[in-house]
Every structure is written in structure tokens, then in C-alpha cells.
Amino acid sequence: FRRLKDGLARTSSRIAEGIGAIFTKRKLDDATLEELETLLIQADLGVETAEQLVAGLRRERFGQEVSAEEVREHLAREIAKILAPVARPLVPASRPHVVLVVGVNGSGKTTTIGKLAKNWRAEGKRVIIAAGDTFRAAAVEQLQVWGERAGVPVVSGAPGADAAGLAFDALTKARTDGADILIIDTAGRLQNKAGLMEELRKVVRVLKKLDPAAPHDCVLVLDATVGQNAHQQVEIFGDMIGVTGLAMTKLDGTAKGGVVVALAERFGLPVYAVGVGEGADDLRSFDATSFARGLMG
Ligand code: GDP
Predict the structure, then answer these.
(1) Does residue 141 register a pLDDT over 90?
(2) Domain named SRP54-type proteins GTP-binding: which ranges (predicted)?
């Protein structure tokens, strides 16, 4: 919880300072509520969520004197309610449980896969990683480093090898080895949307030949620093192959952590994990109350 709070420091200091400036012994009136709404929109909570939060505060406290502290507490409570339904961990239910990881290049896919592998390994699970972005040599190498560190085998192919073929081989190996979880990295070249879609769909098609229920999860990795652009990425990848949950990265490096609330409100997708740093231990499970409190400082 402490680390999550630290990780959100940039977002929370912006919101908390803003609220402090608005509510210095002032009555809750139209002007202060308007300012608060603007502040929440600036922190990427989204227009609808900001309106809804402000309307709630208006109903409860309009015309009364409120302290910044009370406003922060009220908002943290309401935001926790919005986040509670999406705070669901990724629970492997099949064996092997196939997790396809998608997202644009640079979003933190490789790092998140490494952290997930390490966490599951630490829980005693048998994990295999498939380096499915065969065109990015750097990504394959990075995964190998993460794999070595975590004691997790990494299945890779020749540079430019067919991603679907690699996924097939990896799932075959996962079944033979009795692995609990297979994590498959994928390409993230969004500049060639049609090509990417075809590649991802082929991976899914081929996996289904071995297990009709695979992939059991499709995790979209989203860089929180992109703010509102995250909405578009959810739509694009959702249309391409369907997304079952999100991993939000780089919350430590942004004042845009509020986007998680906006995404929860709009898409209702589970947030499986949040990244608050580059290190192996910097992936947190997502807790609604901690996150909401972290956001409000
Ligand atoms: P990919 O291209 O999607 O595979 O992205 P990478 O996993 O290579 O990550 C891109 C950069 O973001 C790397 O420098 C990572 O160390 C960094 N990164 C990933 N997750 C986080 C995070 O939660 N916090 C911070 N600060 N950096 C991160």
C-alpha cells in the first residue's frame, strides 16, 4: 500500500494541492464546485466521472463550509466505489492458463510480463514465457533476461519467425511440461493496424487448435502517462481481439493516474495489476481503496 501511494505521488500531489487551493475555508458554492470539476478533469478522471463526483458532493454539502480534508475524503470514498468492481486479480483457472499480453510498443509489455512471471513464480507456479514479438530483437532479449532472473523458461524463435507458430510451440511445451501459466508476448506495431490485427487473430486461431478456451486472458498493457489516449487503445485492442483485463504501467511517472478511474467507469474491465516502477518488485495488485486514497494524497 505504501509503495502504491508513493507511486501515485505525482497525481496525488497535483490533486491534493489543487483541492487545498480551492477549499481554503470557503463555502461549497457553484464557483468552488466548478473549479473542483476542472481540477478532476485535468487529472484525467474524465468529464463524466468528474461531473458525477462533483454532483455527489453538491448533493451532500452544498452551501456548507468544507475543509480540503473533507473534500479529499469524500472523493476518495466515492472513487473507491467506482474502482471496487474492477479491482479483480488475474486468477489462473485452467492448466495451462494462457495469458496473451497485448499493447503498443513502449507501453511496458515486456517489463510487465517479466514482473508477472516473477510474481507467479514466487507463488510456486510453473510459468513459461513465449517471446511472441519476433521482430523486436530487443524485446526477445529483455524477456530472456527477465526469464533467467525469475527462473522461467522463455520460448523464442528466429528473428522474424511466425508469431502464431511460436505460440503453438509454446503452448505445446507448456502442456508437455505441465506448466500452470503460459504468458505470450505479442507485437505492438499499431502503425500497421491491419497487419497487427491479422497477426494477433492468427495467434488466437492457432492457440484454439490446441485448446478451444485459449487464450484464457488477454491483458492489455496501458501506459498511464498517455492519459486520455488510453481510452482509444482499449477500443482498438478490444475490437482487434477482445481484452479481458488491463495492466496499467508507469503510474509512478505521471500526474495522470486519474485515467484509471475514467477507464473503470467507461469500460468496467478488471485492472489486474499496476506498475509503479521499473524494478521486478514494482508491480502491485490493484486495490480500490488504496488506489483511491493514493490518488487523493
Ligand atoms: P514494451 O515496448 O511495451 O515491451 O515496453 P517495455 O517493457 O520495454 O517498457 C518500456 C520502458 O518503460 C522501459 O524503459 C521500462 O523500464 C519502462 N517501464 C515499464 N513499466 C514501468 C513502470 O511501471 N514504471 C516506470 N517508471 N517505468 C516502467
Answers:
(1) yes
(2) 96-297
Measured CA angle at 202 (ends 234, 249), to 5 deg: 30
Q: What pairs with residue 68 in β-bridges?
A: none
Helix (H, G, I), strand (E, B) or coil at 88: coil
Residues 121 and 127: beta-carbon distance below 8 Å:
yes
The answer to ipTM > 0.95 is yes
Q: What pLDDT score was predicted for residue 26?
A: 74
Which residue from 191, 255, 184 is spatially nearest to 221, judged by alpha carbons? 184
Rg of the chain on CA atoms, in Å: 21
Kind plus residue range of the DSSP H or E element containing 285: strand 283-285
Find the 227 Cα to ligand 1 centroid distance in Å: 16
Per-residue pLDDT tens digits for 167-216: 999 999 999 999 999 999 999 998 899 999 999 999 999 999 999 999 99
Exposed / middle / buried, residue 24 (Cβ in 10 Å: 0-12, 13-18, 19+): exposed
On the question of pLDDT at 1 being above 60, the answer is: no
The phi, psi pair for 65, rounded to 5°, reads -80, 130
Determine the Cα–Cα distance for residues 203 and 164; give it in Å rounded to an integer. Answer: 4
* 3-state SS, residue 259: helix
The residue whose CA is least distant from atom 12 of ligand 1 is: 108
How far apart CA 290 and CA 159 sit, in angstroms, is: 42
**CA angle (211, 213, 219) in 5-degree steps:** 115
Å from CA of 142 to ligand 1 middle: 11
**How far is 246 from 232, CA to CA, in rounded Å?**
13
The predicted model gives 36-47 an average pLDDT of 93
Three-state DSSP state, 270 = coil
Cell numbers standing for residue 214:
485459449
